[in-house]
Design a protein that fits this description.
alpha/beta, 10 strands, about 35% helix, single chain, eight-stranded mixed beta sheet, 9 helices, disordered N terminus, two-stranded antiparallel ribbon
Length: about 325
C-alpha cells in the first residue's frame, strides 16, 4: 500500500509538471510596460523612512506616466494609486511584474510588525487583492502595530513549471532575509512575524532553512504558514534549527491546496514538490484554526484565520491552536 501511494504521488506530480509545461506562458510573450529604474535611496533607518517614502512615491508616479504614454491605461491607473500621498513604500520597482514593499502603520514606533509574503500570480496588476489582506490584518491588529506587504520577488504563475519547484524561492530567500535585517535596523525593539501564504511559504521556508542564527539569519519571532503546499523541508525542526521563530501552520477547510500531493520527487532534472504537509502531525508545527475558507480567504475580514494570524503577531496563542 505504501509503495502504491508513493507511485500515485509521483504520477500526480508528473501530471502537474506536464500540464504546466504544455500550457502557453502568455506572460512571457507579453511586451514589457516601460518603467523607470528604482529610486536611489539611503539605507533604511527610522530617520530615513520619510525620504524612502517620498522617493518611491515619485518613482511610482513616473512609472504611471510612462505606462500611460505606452498605452496601458489600466496599469497607469494602478500606479497612480500607488503614488498617492497616503501610500508608503520602503521599496518600489515598476518594471516587469513589479516588486514593492508597502508599509501600513508607523513602522518606526510599532511594537508588533507583520510581514506578509505572497504566493503565485502577485504583481502590480494583481496588487490590490494582496494589499486588501494587509489592510484587513492591520485593522484587526489595532494601534502600535505595522504591516508590511512584501512583494520582493518574482512570483511564479499559478499554472507554470516554476510554481512546482523551489527555484523562485531559492532566489527570493536571500532577499527576504536581507529585508528582515533592514526592518530590525529600522525598529530593533519590535516583535517581528512572517506570515507566508501559498508559494510564499516556500520562500519563507527557504529563507529560514538557509540562514544561520544571529545577525545573518532570519531574526523573527514567528513564522506562520497558511495555504502552504509545503516548504521544502520535512520537519518544522529543520527550520527551527536555523531560526528562533515559533513555526505555525494553518489551512482552511475549503482550500484546494489540500489536494496537492505533499511530496517531492526528482523529475526532468529538477526537484518537484515541497515535501511534508505543514499541518500534518509529522511536520511538527503549531497548527492554528483557519476556519472553513478557501485558498484566498485567510485575510478576509471577520474570518477565523485572520483572528488566528493577528493573535500570532501579537505574541498570543490562537484559540484552539495545537502545541507542536
Amino acid at each position: 500500500m505504501k509503495l502504491r501511494a508513493g507511485r500515485l504521488r509521483r504520477t500526480l506530480l508528473a501530471a502537474l509538471v506536464a500540464g504546466a509545461v504544455v500550457v502557453p506562458v502568455s506572460a512571457a510573450a507579453r511586451p514589457q510596460v516601460p518603467a523607470p529604474a528604482p529610486a536611489d535611496i539611503p539605507p533604511l533607518t527610522a530617520a530615513t523612512l520619510d525620504t524612502a517614502y517620498d522617493a518611491n512615491r515619485a518613482n511610482a508616479a513616473e512609472a504611471a506616466g510612462m505606462a500611460e504614454r505606452y498605452g496601458d491605461q489600466d496599469r497607469a491607473a494602478r500606479l497612480r494609486a500607488m503614488a498617492g500621498q497616503e501610500r508608503n513604500f520602503l521599496s518600489f520597482d515598476g518594471r516587469g511584474a513589479g516588486r514593492t514593499a508597502e508599509v501600513l502603520g508607523d513602522l518606526a514606533a510599532a511594537e508588533r510588525v507583520a510581514v506578509l509574503v505572497p504566493g503565485s500570480d502577485t504583481g502590480i496588476d494583481t496588487y490590490g487583492r494582496f494589499r486588501a489582506g494587509a489592510v484587513a490584518l492591520h485593522e484587526r491588529l489595532g494601534p502600535r502595530t505595522a504591516v508590511v506587504a512584501w512583494l520582493g520577488y518574482e512570483t511564479p504563475g499559478t499554472v507554470s513549471p516554476a510554481v512546482l519547484t523551489t527555484d523562485r524561492a531559492e532566489e527570493a530567500a536571500p532577499e527576504l532575509r536581507a529585508f528582515v535585517g533592514e526592518l530590525n535596523d529600522v525598529n530593533p525593539g519590535a516583535r517581528l512575524s512572517l506570515l507566508c501564504h501559498s508559494y510564499g511559504s516556500v520562500v519563507c521556508g527557504r529563507a529560514a532553512a538557509q540562514g544561520a542564527q544571529g545577525p545573518q539569519g532570519l531574526d523573527v519571532a514567528d513564522i506562520a504558514l497558511y495555504g502552504s503546499p509545503g516548504v521544502g523541508v520535512d520537519r518544522a525542526a529543520d527550520l527551527k534549527s536555523r531560526t528562533h521563530a515559533r513555526i505555525w501552520a494553518g489551512r482552511g477547510a475549503g482550500d484546494w491546496i489540500s489536494d496537492v500531493p505533499h511530496s517531492s520527487v526528482g523529475l526532468f532534472g529538477t526537484t518537484v514538490g515541497f515535501g511534508t504537509d505543514p499541518v500534518s502531525p509529522g511536520f511538527g508545527a503549531r497548527v492554528f484554526p483557519a476556519g472553513d475558507g478557501g485558498h484566498s480567504d485567510y485575510l478576509k475580514p471577520g474570518s477565523v484565520a485572520l483572528d488566528s494570524l493577528a493573535r500570532i503577531v501579537r505574541g498570543q496563542r490562537p484559540e484552539g491552536a495545537s502545541h507542536a
